[in-house]
Amino acid sequence: MSAFLKVLFGDAWNVAVVAAIVLAAVMMVEAGYPTIAAYVVPPLTLAGVALLIRR
Amino acid sequence: MFNVAVIIPAFLAAGVEWVEAFTIVFAVGLTIGWRAAAGAAFAALAVLAVMTVSMGGVLSLGVNIAALQFLIGVFLLLFGVRWLAKAIARQAGLKPLRSEADEFNKVRARLSGGDWSGSWIIAFKGVLLEGLEVWLIVVAMGGHGGWASLAGAALGALAALAVVIAAGVIIGAPLARLPENVIKFTVGAAIVSFGTFWMLEALGGPTVWPGHDWSLPGLFVFYAGGGLAMVSAVRRFSRGRSVL
């Protein structure tokens, strides 16, 4: 079961990074800045990838 | 009938996973015989086929497209960021490059002294878990555009399976010479691009991205370029530390 979940979601760090990206996107869109989110989310995602490199 | 745009990404992504599954089945086949190993592989593939058809059925029920797009985007991100991070780490030398020959030897070592049913389960589980990643890619890439996209992504994955089996049978050894990390890096960047694009479009509507669909190639260049920059930065950093 744990192998199955790991394939679906990855480890806790992976989930945390993606959750942070999605949360930031939701907050920006809800605050009324969806077009700015288009310029913020990609660098944020790349920063998340950088965080995961050493995990 | 098929959405051609998803066939190639699905083919490449699935190909990498099928190569890994083939290595396990090949090792098991040498231990308990080809018929049993192939039986285990086909049993796992049958489970995956049922999952894919069921997903197509869910899509035809007319679920909320924006919610589905958001969910697919998040799953692609969950999948893509770890592929990209792992490929960067391997390319930069932080992690060893995956070697199919080493994996083959590891599975063979696990099988030595093992019983028939234990070996069968290793082949079944190996194909199921690697195939589960293929299933996720097929559903994520194909789920967005309905049946035509799902069929296109499934076709890409099946074509990759056929190529891997044919190559494996012809070579008669694990497929060790594939540039697996380059493919994983490229597909990882593509999956993250699709994931970011769909997730934000589902939240903010079709006008959220500048250039609309043309943002996708831009995102790919951004992630691939950023990933390459990270590879060289990590290499430089590691070299600097080893000098000190």
- What average pLDDT do the residues of chain B reach? 84
The number of domains of chain A is 1
Beta fraction of the residues of chain B? Answer: under 5%
Q: How much is the radius of gyration of chain A in Å?
A: 13 Å
From the helix content, strand content and strand pairing of chain B, which structural class follows?
mainly alpha
Estimate percent helicity of chain A.
over 70%
Number of separate structural domains of chain B? 1
Structure report:
The complex is a heterodimer of chains A (55) and B (244). With 55 residues, chain A is an all-alpha fold. Chain A has one domain (2-53). Chain A is 85% helix and 0% strand. Chain A is built from three helices and no strands. Chain B has 244 residues and is mostly helical. Chain B has one domain (4-243). Chain B is 82% helix and 0% strand. Chain B contains eight helices and no strands. Chain B has helices at 7-32, 34-60, 65-91, 100-111, 116-143, 146-171, 180-204, 215-243. The N and C termini of chain B lie far apart (60 Å). Classes of the chains: A mainly alpha (55), B mainly alpha (244). Chain A binds chain B through residues 3-4, 7-10, 14-15, 17-18, 21-22, 25-26, 29, 34-35, 37-38, 41-42, 45-46, 48-50, 52-55, and chain B through 74-75, 77-79, 81-82, 84-85, 88-89, 92, 94, 125, 129, 132-133, 136, 192, 196, 199-200, 203-205, 207-210, 215, 219, 222-223, 226-227, 230, 234.
